[in-house]
Each structure stands twice: as structure tokens, then as C-alpha cells.
Amino acid sequence: MIKIENLKASIEDKEILKGIDLEIPKGEIHVIMGRNGSGKSTLANVIAGNETYEVDSGLIAMNGNDITEMSIENRALQGLFLCFQYPVAIPGVSMAYFLRAALNAKNKHDGKEEMDAVKFLATAKKILSDLGLDDSFLKRSINDGFSGGEKKKSEILQLLMLNPQLAILDETDSGLDVDALRTVAKGVNEFKNDNNSVLIITHYQRLLEYIEPDVVHIMIDGKIVKSGDMKLVHEVEKNGYSWLMK
Amino acid sequence: MIDKNQQIIDSAIDQEYKYGFTTDIETTTFEPGLDEGVITKLSKLKKEPQWLLDWRLKAYESWKKMEEPTWAQVDYTPVDYQALSYYSAPKYKKNDSLDDVDPDIIDTYNKLGISLNEQKRLEGVAVDAVFDSVSVATTFKKELAKHGVIFCSFSEAVIDHPELVKKYLGSVIPRTDNYFAALNSAVFSDGSFVYIPKNVRCPMELSTYFRINAANTGQFERTLIIADEGSHVSYLEGCTAPMRDENQLHAACVELVAHKDATIKYSTIQNWYAGDKEGRGGIYNFVTKRGICAGDRAKISWTQVETGSAVTWKYPSVIMQGDDSVGEFYSVAVTKNKQQADTGTKMIHIGKNTKSTIISKGISAGEGQNTYRGGVKILKNADNARNFSQCDSILIGNKCGAHTFPYIDVKNPTAKMEHEATTSSIGEDQLFYCNQRGINLDDSVSMIVNGFCKEVFAELPMEFAVEAKQLIEVTLENSVG
User: Does the N-terminal or the C-terminal CB of chain A have fewer CB atoms within 10 Å?
Assistant: First the structure.
């Protein structure tokens, strides 16, 4: 699905990613754990094409296509989706309008017909009810005055509506109470199938009580220092990260 | 990303102005120049009564002693008032039948998307078409007359309804009000006139479409709308002009009078030619608009979408004289390239329990400069007056500017004032968010800007809200990269 080779990236001449190698095959859930400032969120943003960061060297390929230089929207249209850690508000633009614009852009790119309003509403309402959100959510301005939980649920709503090939969850679990965390996890599990992939970025293990990863990576100072399975999560939980530093 | 944005901004904000054509037509045009003789000639040509000629000449006397205002946040080459022609009109006689209108003119309006054919026209909208200095056609006059509504050109009103014109002309904007209003009072050539009788709800939207065609000619029109007690009218004006390298002056006056329990809703979609991207050419739009809520519970609401003109100087205002009267101002002003806009409103509270609302949205792109200038005045007897002002500005790129000048003058301690102002850039984080969902840059910008303008667009009549939205989209296309 996605393959990253020796990726180095910086912001304002400060190197943050110092050579990342990562491959996520189709149908797998990977987790990247690490302390604050280790470069996890930078990686998520660089994969999505955020131009605040400069890619200094390396390669990002999706389904065999080099996307390192590709525009943000084209990456999205290839099926890449980022669940934002801090989704930004866009006053006056309703969730329904925004979602339809995104869906239509995607359908147009895939050579499909626009989704009609009836089907759109039916699909959206089903997901909203699964997420414990009211239908009126669609009429609200995106992320404008949303609570922390609503913001994250809104990201999951978009994930399920747009149904991408690769979902990157950037600290989606932070700031959620247990109920909201369960709801979000349920949404991610619903999304997941054998043909898509998920990259979860977190520094807690609590989301992983509900979502079972195939591979766990530990990131320290811009590099992946160790990869393993769930056992690695428990080790980090017990002993912290220090033992992984050389 | 900032550098890349700027590059694209620099190279791409020259969306073609699709109304920039000229119509080749035989005209009667005055030689350039302005003096008493020109004004007298104009007045005679229009067969005006002596009192109106006297009124014009008095205005001219005052104007000569006045100085062009310089307080606005705009910078432009001064107008040479002696180099302008003060009258240009197509050579043909206007009469009641639309069939007699010159086909070239009908064609011009068709190209602008305005059909003067009543059958083809959007149902429920009557149009007065002003071409350079004169009104060339007014639709649905007979239909409106059945309800007692008078909708005609200003020149016709002077002949057919002199008592109304004499009573109300200059009653809201005195002829010495300001430099441009005085000039307009001296030389105005035509415009629209509306009278809605008592307790009549005007059965259709009224509109005037202003077209400047001739070169080196100023357009000075005058609109007067009177809503008698308990009546209701919604009025819209639209404006376009050909692309020329020289600046052209448009100095209009609009006076609104709302009597007891009457409502006037006045909407403008202003799309005069804005000049090219180096700032050559474009219209100087120096306009005085004011309404008075003369009776209790009267309401005047201005909504404007300003996307055109090289320089805009315009402050649609409301005098709330009647108790419980209401003034509203909703504005979206867009400046790009080298456009400059200094616009806002004045809300004057005289009556008790008067209430005003100001929502202003300024959008600056390219090297555009956008200024909100608004005054709220609460006089001594205006007990329990309330004002809410919200002035938001959005910047696209880093070469443009937004400025806010609120003036507040409160003489009554029971007044309640609220003022909110924000300035923000279209955030790279907002664009990133939209792009990450697969929405391209142009669509993202237009979505963000339309969201920003939503409260104002909501005030426009339905069909014009769609037009306004499209206009903003076309105007801002390629304005960010």
C-alpha cells in the first residue's frame, strides 16, 4: 500500500525526520509510538504532503507510484486520508457541503457519477447514528465550536464517508474520554478491511485496547528504532522509551 | 508554500472581465466640460421645470466652492472635471413600447444576461435599464401600475410626478451634502424612480441595471425610492462597464424614504470594470447612498456585494428617525489586483428603541486595499438604541491590506453597542485541510470565502445570491496557489 524509503524532512532547516523506512502492506494496521517531539506527527503531515515541511531526500510511494512530489489533493484523490490531530474550523461551511464537495472531487477523479443527495444523506445519517451524533451535525460549520470529541468524531465520519485506501490517524485518541475513544475505535474497525491500511500515530496505548495492530514501530528522534508486535507496546508501557535509546 | 502562493497570485489574478465589451451605437454626446451652460443645456434637453434647473444650478454653485475629499484610504489620479462629457445618450426616442428600443441596446443587455423582453424575463423582476446617461427601457410598468406602484426613469418622474420628485428630491441627501453628491445634484442625467403606495407590498422585485458604454463620459444617476406607510419593496441594482485604459467616473446618489411601518430592502451587485492588473483603467465609484426611516417601525436594509471598480468610495447609511425603526447594512467587498475600496455605513439613531445591524466582510487579494469605515451615532433622545457591528476581513496572499475604522458617537446613556472585528488570512491550515480531502485550491478558496460571506449572501434575494456567489468565485479564481 505505502512504502517509505530513507525519508528525511525538515522545517525551517531543522531536520525532524532523519531517515524513515516504513512499509505498510494492504490489509494491515501499523502503529507508530513515540514521545512528544519524536517526529510522529511530522511523518503523518509529510506523507499527506503538507508543504510546511521540506522533504530533503527519500521516497514515498503509494501502490507503486512515487507520490513524494505530488500535490496534496492528488495524494488525497489517490486514496490517502489524514485524520487530523487538530482539525481546523471553517466558519460558514457546513459539514454536508464540505463532505459532498470532497466526495464529488473523489468521484470525479475516479470517473464515477456524483453521489446523489438522497443516497448521500442516507449514508451520512447511518454513520452519524453509529457515532452517536445527531443528524443536525451535517448542518454545522466544520469544526466551528465543536468539542474535542466532536472534532475527532467528525474526522471519523469523513473517513467512513470517503472510504480511502490508507488512513493515517494522527493522535486521534488524544483528549478523548473512554466512551468517545470506544466510538472512534469502533469507527476505525468498521472502516478496516483486507483491501485498505491504517497507520495509527499515538503516544498512548489506550486506543490499542480496542484496535489490534499488526505491527508496532517505535520512533525516537526522527527514526524508527524498533519494530515488533503488541508485546512491544506492553514493554514500552512498563519500561518507557529510555531502554530503546542508544 | 508562501513563495509558491505569491508566484501564483502574481501571475494569475487576471481573470477576464466578461462584461468589458463596447456597443457601437450612434449617440448624442455633449462636448467635454462643465459650466452653467452645460447644466442649462442638459435641463432643457430633458424638458425640466424651472425649479429643477434652479436646484441644479444652486448645487453647482456649492460644488464649485467645495473640495474633493481626501480622508478616504484611497489613492487615485485626480479627475479632470473639465475633460469629462456630462451627457451621452443613444439617439432614439424612448416611448412606452419595448419594441422600439434599438436592437443594439437590447442585444447589449442580452449579452449582460438581462432580458428586456417581459416574457423572457425572470418572473417577478421588473427592470429599468440605464445606458450611459439615460434610461432606455423599463419593463412591467403597466403590470406594476395596477397596484399603484410607480416604477419609471427619473426623467419621466420629473415630467409625470413632479409633486413627488419636488417633495423628496434632496430630502435625504441635501445637494450640499458632500463633494460628489453636490456634483451629482448639478449634473445627474437619469436614474430610477420608485413610489410604493400605502399598504402595498410590491408584487415583484424591482431592479435597475446600469451600463456605462461611452468613453470619457461620467455617469451621474440618481435613484429615489419612496415607500409610503405600511408598504414593502425589494430593489436591486447591477452595474457593468467596458474595459478601457482610462478611468471613468461614476458618481451616483440614491435616496430612500421609508414611511411609518414601511420596509425598503436595497441590494447592490456592483461589478464595474475594475481596471487591469497593473491598475490601468477602471471605474471610480464615488457614490452617496442614504435612507431615512421617517416614521415609526420603518425599516431600511442595505445589502451590497462590491467586486468591481478601481476605486470605491461608498457608505450606504440609514437615519432612524421614527421610533422602533431599524437600519441594516450587510456588505461583502472584494478587492484584488490594485483595486481600492473604502466602504462602510453610517447608522444615525434619532428615534427611541431604534436598532441597527452592521455586518461587513472585506476580502483582499493581490495588492488590493480594503477599508471598512463605519459610523454609529446615537443622539440624545434615542433611548434604548441598539447597535451590533461585526467587521471581518480576510486576506489572500501577503501584498494586500485590510483596514477598519469604526467611529462611535453616543449621546444617550441607555444605548447598547456591540462591536466585533476580526482579520484573518485564509489559513494555510484551512487550505491544507480542504486539499487533504481532495478538494482543489480554487474550490477550497471559494468554499472558505463563501463560508465567510454566508451571513451577507443570506440577505440577498434568492436568484441574486446565486449570482453573487458565482461572481465571487470568478473574481477570486487563481488568487491563491
Answer: C
